[in-house]
Design brief:
With about 210 residues, the chain is an alpha+beta fold. The protein has one domain: Sandwich (Jelly Rolls), CATH 2.60.120. It has a five-stranded antiparallel β-sheet, with no helix packed on it. Strands 10-9-12-7-14 form a five-stranded antiparallel β-sheet, covered by helices on one side. The radius of gyration is 17 Å and the shape is globular. It starts with a strand and ends with a helix.
């Protein structure tokens, strides 16, 4: 089962500006053997803009390769795969032009802009299907608000820029009932191995014991 992965990028600076290639090589999962069918650009004029959390279901599910072209965002993804041990767990990533994020199929994806005039590019490996799209309202996961307040002290919920559509939750996959709960210590070890550089233990444990 594929896992999300954060990849550091080479950014070349000179008197002209910057050059930042989009890499398809990942230390954990090798070369991303994907047939990317579309490249999207998301342009947000003001900080405090929230987009998502978006996903598509079934055979129309999409992997994404997310890259910030300009500005900074706090990116958040939720594992919606019913069979996953980490079902409904939330992962957070601080993204700028020095990193890129691979999001496998089966995850809801969203972000909040931390700067004005933010541009985010993301590749997808499946066509857009309006009938199979879904959305998860960020406010249904309190841990997202907690994390935003940690990394973005000037955050004001009353000043959020968000579409009416993204305020809704719809088409969530149905969970699979299971009595096989993973041991807590195994999950913690898994998280430490998975995010050795990007998260401190306190944030990991807080996410682990979140009801989401």
């Amino acid at each position: 089962m594929e896992q999300p992965e954060l990849n550091k990028c080479y950014v070349f600076n000179d008197e002209r500006g910057k050059f930042a290639p989009l890499s398809l090589n990942y230390k954990g999962q090798g070369v991303l053997d994907k047939q990317w069918v579309q490249s999207n650009l998301s342009i947000s004029m003001s900080k405090n803009t929230i987009r998502g959390l978006h996903f598509q279901n079934g055979k129309f599910a999409q992997s994404k390769l997310v890259k910030v072209v300009r500005g900074k965002v706090l990116d958040f993804i939720v594992d919606l795969r019913p069979e996953s041990l980490y079902h409904m767990n939330v992962n957070f990533y601080d993204l700028d032009d020095s990193v890129e994020l691979y999001v496998p199929r089966g995850f809801a994806h969203g972000f909040i802009t931390l700067t004005d005039n933010t541009i985010v590019q993301y590749l997808v490996d499946n066509d857009y299907s309006p009938e199979n799209e879904g959305c998860l309202n960020w406010e249904e996961l309190p841990i997202i608000k907690e994390e935003i307040e940690l990394v973005f002290p000037e955050f004001n919920p009353d000043e959020i820029v968000i579409s009416d559509k993204d305020k809704l939750t719809y088409n969530l996959p149905k969970p699979v009932e299971s009595t096989n709960e993973p041991a807590t210590e195994n999950i913690i070890v898994d998280l430490i191995k998975k995010y050795p550089d990007d998260y401190d233990l306190g944030r990991m444990v807080r996410r682990l014991f979140s009801p989401y």
